[in-house]
Amino acid sequence: MDQGAKIVLISSIYHSYDHYLAPEITDAMQQTIEAALDAHGAVTVFFRADDIGVLSKNYQHLMALFLKYQTPLCLAVVPAWMTQSRWEAMAEFHGKKETLFCWHMHGYRHMNHEIKGKKQEFGAIRSTRALSSDLSRGHERLTAIMGKNLTPVFTPPWNRCSPETLMLLKEKGFKAVSRSQGSLPLSPPGLRDFPVHVDLHTRKEQRAKEGWQTLLAEFTTGMNDDACGIMIHHMRMNHQAFIFLEYLLALFAGYKQITVVAFNDLL
Ligand SMILES: [Zn+2]
Asked: 191-201 burial by CB neighbour count: b if 16+ within 10 A, else e?
């Protein structure tokens, strides 16, 4: 989410149908899966939902879908947004469901600090002390609120962070980082990397046709990697975006050769 953004931007692909996905989309999605299964025999997938911390209709809808399909979901929680009362209000989704939902840390305030170039909360412009302080206080805050529900994985806002941040994560005992596929530098030994390949909701293509083509290409890339990471932004979802997500969950559930995991299964 952009800092202070008021306008919810919905990707063009979710304005391209009303209630039913076009057969060309579902056919292409199935062909993508079949090709990956032909090549590898089995496929591992994970879903990562970002910008978690505030209860909303879309959040409830998202969680209900993953419960309905009993599908694991990694949830990237913004420490500054999460409070004890918000966590208690989400109680139906933790506790007994801890094996389905993998809660982990997403930035500290989800704030951009860079002056030039791409947005980053944990970028090169910040001092070691500031980076270290935000990582520590974020982790302490979430540990105090969420206790054993917290998994030691870090998703940097906007999927990117400085090399220094990677070293600090390792020093502080984080076990893995989740960024965009192809991010450099590679994470240091001892800090695993769980990249995301597929961007379901923050796509920028103007034309839906181009958006679908690129999205399917992302699935192909991901399904040829160790685990295909699929990114969710629930605040950017409309009714059609929920239709496509439910289609994916039902589709994956129908394949014995597709295993949906969460970060704690990969550590
Ligand atoms: Zn985010």
From this structure: beebbbbbbbb
Cα 250 to ligand 1 centroid, rounded to whole Å: 26
pTM for the model stands at 0.95
* CA 219–ligand 1 middle distance (angstroms): 21
For 239, how many CA atoms within 13 A lie in the half-sphere containing its CB?
Answer: 6
**Distance between Cα 123 and ligand 1 center (Å):** 14
Domain segments of the chain as ranges: 12-89+98-104+174-266
155 CA distance to ligand 1 middle (Å): 8
Which pLDDT tens digits describe the chain residue by residue (267 residues)? 444 445 678 999 999 888 899 999 999 999 999 999 999 999 999 999 999 999 999 999 999 999 999 999 999 999 999 999 999 998 888 765 557 999 999 999 999 999 999 999 999 999 999 999 999 999 999 999 999 999 999 999 999 999 999 999 999 999 999 999 999 999 999 999 999 999 999 999 999 999 999 999 999 999 999 999 999 999 999 999 999 999 999 999 999 999 999 999 999
- Are the CB atoms for 47 and 73 separated by under 8 Å? yes
Task: Tell me which CATH code domain 12-89+98-104+174-266 carries.
Answer: 3.20.20
The answer to whether the bond into 163 is cis (omega within 30° of 0) is no
Question: 44 C-alpha vs ligand 1 centroid, how far in Å?
Answer: 23
Angle CA 20–24–27, to nearest 5: 100
Helix intervals (H) in 147-228: 163-171, 208-223
Paired sense of beta strands 192-193 and 198-199, if any: unpaired
**CA nearest to 13, candidates 185, 173, 195, 216:** 216
